[in-house]
Specification:
Elements: E1 19-25, E2 39-40, E3 46-51, H1 55-64, E4 68-74, H2 87-94, E5 123-132, E6 142-148, E7 163-167, E8 181-184, E9 198-204, E10 207-209, E11 215-217, H3 219-225, E12 232-239, E13 252-258, H4 263-273, H5 275-280, E14 289-296, H6 305-314, E15 319-325, H7 339-345, H8 347-355, E16 359-365, H9 369-382, H10 388-397, E17 401-405
Parallel strand pairs: 13-14, 13-16, 14-15, 16-17
Antiparallel strand pairs: 1-3, 1-4, 2-3, 5-6, 5-12, 6-9, 7-8, 7-12, 10-11
């Protein structure tokens, strides 16, 4: 089931329902900004009507959308703004230019480890545990596999957002070793045990029927899903700098994932919110805003469900969780609810976030979702006269738009 953020429960007292007017500068407009209509003066100020019971949450939202509160007054007091903007003010707001993202420093990830172990001389680790990630009735086979990295010389170290290669045991039809398959790492650099000696993967067993109706199983995914504790596994890497987290503790992190595309996002969220990680990472205490859109077919297929919802409950002002459960929820047109439909629902709010220079967007999972995501955000950007294709390319150069799909 869709589980909205628990923030903003409100109060039932008469004072809790009183309205206040926030005067905000540097804050974008849009139907999902939190008010039906907001008045924008020629000066560029925005006036938001906010009930007392939601003042704390609104302050958080304004901050992450790049706004600054310059005044708060009870509704109706002298100086409070009218509730409706004039046509001339609206036109002035729409004609404001949008600054394009600036290119990032190409050397910023120079120290990230890459290819410590290569295919001709892989590291041989051991399976420590192999557990199902599906609840009863879940579709398919999806496993969380933890592997021991101790004893390596050099040590196989990695950072959140990287991948490792796996070489399945056995040989292919030509008598050669199986080719490497890359998998996104689902653990932080400290590992699930927080001792720097493990790496974890989230793996779905690939199954499909060929043209003759025969069931075909993926070689490497089947090998991994069937690994027994104590079994050897050949590992290469780590590889990849596309999906790395920014170092900024105040960043906004938007994550759009389907199925096992949750893997790098689990690593991010552990680094941000897990108590043990926060104790180990004294120089990184996340204070920003993280928003995960997660597409799955059924509730039983919500991977790491307990972890996600525990973090959301503990950090309601910093972590927002939005599910798209395709076989249980309907989109606005009555069809199945996929992740691109959820993005369309929140497109205006996402666009305001994306314009903030502290925001990074990460997409991981099925390549088919990319078009729908682009279409939704393009529509929101077009309301302000912005060409989304150009803006997205600038985001990519700024190292703020990260995509790893298959």
């Amino acid at each position: 089931m869709y589980n909205p953020s628990v923030a903003g429960s409100g109060e039932s007292t008469s004072f809790g329902s009183r309205m206040f007017v926030f005067e905000v500068i540097g804050f974008g407009q849009g139907p999902n900004s939190g008010v039906a209509e907001s008045a924008v003066r020629q000066s560029g100020s925005t006036f938001l009507q906010v009930p007392y019971s939601r003042m704390s949450q609104e302050v958080q939202r304004i901050s992450r959308l790049g706004g600054k509160i310059v005044n708060i007054l009870p509704l109706g007091e002298a100086g409070a703004a009218p509730a409706v903007q004039s046509n001339s003010a609206a036109e002035s707001s729409q004609s404001m230019s949008i600054e394009m993202p600036k290119p990032a420093d190409k050397k910023k990830h120079a120290g990230v480890p890459v290819n410590t172990y290569r295919p001709k001389a892989p590291f041989v680790g051991k399976c420590m545990s192999n557990d199902t990630l599906l609840a009863e009735g879940g579709i398919g086979t999806v496993q969380h596999i933890k592997m021991d990295l101790s004893g390596g010389d050099p040590m196989l170290q990695y950072v959140e957002g990287q991948s490792i290669g796996i070489i399945a045991d056995g040989e292919d039809a030509k008598g050669k070793p199986h080719k490497i398959r890359l998998y996104s790492i689902a653990s932080t650099g400290h590992g699930d045990d927080l001792n720097d000696q493990t790496v974890s993967l989230c793996v779905r067993q690939l199954e499909y029927k060929d043209d003759e109706g025969n069931l075909i199983k993926g070689v490497c995914s089947t090998f991994l899903c069937n690994l027994q504790p104590g079994a050897d596994v050949k590992i290469t890497g780590p590889v990849g700098k596309e999906m790395l987290l920014p170092e900024d503790e105040d960043a906004n992190i938007v994550m759009l994932g389907t199925g096992t595309g949750i893997a790098p996002f689990r690593a991010y969220l552990w680094r941000m919110f897990k108590d043990g990680e926060r104790e180990l990472n004294k120089d990184y205490q996340f204070k920003g805003f993280a928003w995960l859109f997660f597409g799955i077919p059924t509730t039983a297929n919500i991977l790491y469900k307990d972890e996600l919802e525990e973090m959301q409950a503990k950090y309601p002002d910093n972590f927002r969780l939005t599910y798209a459960i395709s076989r249980e929820q309907k989109n606005s047109e009555g069809g199945r609810m996929y992740i691109q439909h959820r993005v369309a629902e929140y497109a205006d709010e996402l666009w305001q976030l994306i314009k903030n220079e502290k925001t990074h967007v990460y997409i991981c999972g099925l390549r088919g979702m990319e078009g729908g995501i682009d279409e939704a955000i393009a529509a929101a950007a077009a309301k302000e006269g912005v060409n989304w294709d150009e803006y997205r390319r600038a985001l990519k150069k700024a190292d703020r738009w990260h995509v790893e799909t298959y």
